[in-house]
Amino acid sequence: MKMMKFLCFQLLCIILLSNIGLFQSSYHDYADALSKSILFFEGQRSGYLPDNQRINWRGHSGLSDGWMVKTDLTGGYYDAGDNVKFNFPMAFTTTMLAWSVIEFSEYMPPAELRNTLVAVKWGTDYLLKTVSQPNRIFVQVGDPILDHNCWERPEDMDTARTVYTVDAPDTASDVAGETAAALAAASIAFRSSDPGYSDTLLRTSTRVFDFADSYRGAYSDNSNIRNAVCPFYCDFDGYQDELLWGAAWLRRASQGESYLNYIQTNIKTLGADDNINEFGWDNKHAGLNVLVSKEVLEGNMYSLETYKASADSFMCTLIPESSSYHIEFSPGGLIYRPGGSNLQHATTISFLLLVYANYLERSYQTVNCGSVSISPTMLRRIAKRQVDYILGDNPKGMSYLVGYSNYYPGRIHHRGSSLPSIKDHPQFIACKEGSIYFNSTNPNPNVLVGALVGGPGEDDAYEDDRADFRKSEPTTYINAPFVGVLAYFVANPNF
């Protein structure tokens, strides 16, 4: 009887989460989607572009970044459809790309593994520059107010490239903690292919984490930069999670006992069991809990059991039969959270589902959600439903990955994509002269292949409107976890 109830529950979950009868599941070329999702990062590059740049409608940009502080701050990524380099989400993007390599490189075709490592390095090379001076971190390049008042190509931008700096004892635990995490994670990703670079990343990560922990506080609490980082990438959820996140990555990268002690002793004081149901550029709790749980599941560290309990609790929120189920889904099956840009939740949560499923499977364990036991296979099914929705199995039949399939958003909220390429139109286009392209109803002239837009809302509606940035703007931190997710399904389309 118990087995029959379990089988019935499994079938119920499949029906609820796949919306069988509403949308026909179709074949998806996960390898093609993976290739495109990695290519997107080349379209977001700032700095001097290499000869092998594949998105060839882009050109060099931001070549004087850092001159006003006598520091080379060229490179890195524009976070979204604008021309500002926000280091907080950029560091998270880099962490997630590196984590994708760490967990899923075995599933990646060799060429795409190389391309992913190139994308990681484009981020870490820049992040190393931002922490090149002791007890100082550069947290942003570009005045966002002036930038957002213009609609111009990055190659043309003539707005102030203001550099925003935090010096001790002023605080930047969030940005510094995430930067430490990115460098530590990347040190693992490069350990076999470039050990010298890996050592540099780990050594720098240790120093940056010390800065983050010694001067505790949020970077957006500093009056000299608050108006520049808020409301764009203000720290809304506190800096404590970034300290634990940075320490957890340093523990994994170095196996150092001091970092193990740090995440053990600060579980309560830094709130490891708070806000467990979020994961993104601002809130690291769910990802932190999954990351740390690896050591518990491997049978090594029962002192970290609180993290695993929180990871299990998060997984249960996604299971309809669980008493703690409460994460919302759109009628078409997309994970929904208020605030717009839904796909950032779908990609990060799918990533955690797959990582945790692998951890559980390797240790022959399941998740106990009260009276229900959840297998790794069930977690993977939830993730696959999100991936297939994004790629076209949704009420509109639209792929939200630009360039994938024959029907995808054509009017994305992105300056470089919507304006004529500097290669085709080398004449300068001034700040307000780009408005005619923003207001045009024509599709963007340059296809930003691989861009994941913010996506539809709670009702699955999407209008393909350039002005609706919450739905039509791509960001690096939506794409980064999707790289790892797609890599898994390249090798395991039916798992």
TrEMBL record:
<comment type="similarity">
    <text>Belongs to the glycosyl hydrolase 9 (cellulase E) family.</text>
</comment>
<dbReference type="InterPro" id="IPR008928">
    <property type="entry name" value="6-hairpin_glycosidase_sf"/>
</dbReference>
<feature type="active site">
    <location>
        <position position="464"/>
    </location>
</feature>
<keyword id="KW-0326">Glycosidase</keyword>
<protein>
    <recommendedName>
        <fullName>Endoglucanase</fullName>
        <ecNumber>3.2.1.4</ecNumber>
    </recommendedName>
</protein>
<dbReference type="InterPro" id="IPR033126">
    <property type="entry name" value="Glyco_hydro_9_Asp/Glu_AS"/>
</dbReference>
<keyword id="KW-0136">Cellulose degradation</keyword>
<dbReference type="GO" id="GO:0030245">
    <property type="term" value="P:cellulose catabolic process"/>
</dbReference>
<dbReference type="InterPro" id="IPR012341">
    <property type="entry name" value="6hp_glycosidase-like_sf"/>
</dbReference>
<feature type="domain" description="Glycoside hydrolase family 9">
    <location>
        <begin position="30"/>
        <end position="486"/>
    </location>
</feature>
<feature type="active site">
    <location>
        <position position="413"/>
    </location>
</feature>
<dbReference type="Pfam" id="PF00759">
    <property type="entry name" value="Glyco_hydro_9"/>
</dbReference>
<keyword id="KW-0624">Polysaccharide degradation</keyword>
<keyword id="KW-0378">Hydrolase</keyword>
<feature type="active site">
    <location>
        <position position="473"/>
    </location>
</feature>
<dbReference type="InterPro" id="IPR001701">
    <property type="entry name" value="Glyco_hydro_9"/>
</dbReference>
<dbReference type="InterPro" id="IPR018221">
    <property type="entry name" value="Glyco_hydro_9_His_AS"/>
</dbReference>
<keyword id="KW-0119">Carbohydrate metabolism</keyword>
<dbReference type="GO" id="GO:0008810">
    <property type="term" value="F:cellulase activity"/>
</dbReference>
<feature type="signal peptide">
    <location>
        <begin position="1"/>
        <end position="25"/>
    </location>
</feature>
<keyword id="KW-0732">Signal</keyword>
